């Protein structure tokens, strides 16, 4: 005697749960079956049936918020709003949160400073640029991009030092640009790790945002001996 347990088509997650649950229960079914062979079978609910396939497509469009022209909608359904499934709802909330975050950033003082410094580079580019970096290096790169780093110019703004001028050359304020690209004290290190790779490596918009510039950038900083507590 044979017994078949048939499960119709379900979403992938539900089907996986059914398989796990059934596989755990099958041994106990065998024990109490009196020798009956128990088999699990998966049965496609309506694969290939055009009417059901079309209904699935229409349900998917509705779940995504797509609307039909008013003349095609019966009057009693005009004000009906179909509930969103959990997956679509989470996606919508994520999109709304991202939009709100972008608007907040663009309206902030930090966002304005970033636009003035890097007008053609989106903050999203930075996230994609750093997602494979160790956290310590991603943090260092972020501080270089924003200018919030332990260089004289920033420390002076925080009233932690008496002068913004570079201690090594006394020529100008020790900004990120001065430290990375101009200070004569680090000319040899700059030539070895940056200039030798090409002229582009002497532009912040390339040096801080090009993937191929990351290792030379960090090597230069390490060679200067500056920012030792940040570079690893």
From TrEMBL:
Gene3D superfamilies: Ribonuclease H-like superfamily/Ribonuclease H. InterPro entries: RNaseH-like_sf, RNaseH_domain, RNaseH_sf. SUPFAM superfamilies: Ribonuclease H-like. GO terms for molecular function: nucleic acid binding; RNA-DNA hybrid ribonuclease activity. It comes from the Eukaryota. PROSITE patterns: RNASE_H_1. Residues 1-64 form the RNase H type-1 domain. Coiled coil: none annotated. This is RNase H type-1 domain-containing protein. It comes from Rhizoctonia solani. The lineage of its organism: Eukaryota, Fungi, Dikarya, Basidiomycota, Agaricomycotina.
């Amino acid at each position: 005697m044979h017994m078949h347990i048939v499960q119709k088509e379900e979403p992938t997650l539900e089907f996986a749960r059914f398989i796990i649950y059934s596989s755990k229960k099958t041994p106990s079914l065998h024990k109490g079956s009196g020798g009956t062979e128990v088999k699990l079978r998966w049965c496609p609910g309506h694969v290939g049936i055009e009417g059901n396939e079309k209904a699935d497509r229409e349900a998917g469009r509705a779940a995504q918020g797509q609307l039909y022209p008013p003349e095609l909608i019966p009057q009693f359904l005009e004000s009906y709003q179909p509930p969103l499934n959990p997956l679509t709802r989470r996606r919508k909330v994520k999109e709304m949160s991202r939009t709100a975050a972008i608007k907040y950033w663009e309206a902030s003082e930090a966002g304005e400073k970033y636009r003035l410094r890097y007008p053609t580079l989106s903050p999203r580019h930075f996230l994609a640029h750093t997602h494979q970096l160790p956290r310590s290096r991603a943090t260092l790169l972020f501080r270089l991009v924003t200018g919030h780093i332990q260089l004289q110019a920033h420390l002076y703004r925080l009233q932690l030092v008496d002068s913004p001028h570079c201690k090594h050359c006394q020529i100008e304020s020790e900004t990120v640009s001065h430290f990375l690209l101009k200070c004569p004290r680090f000319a040899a290190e700059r030539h070895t790790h940056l200039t030798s790779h090409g002229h582009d490596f002497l532009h912040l918009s390339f040096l801080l945002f090009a993937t191929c510039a990351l290792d030379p950038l960090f090597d230069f900083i390490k060679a200067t001996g500056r920012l030792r507590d940040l570079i690893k």
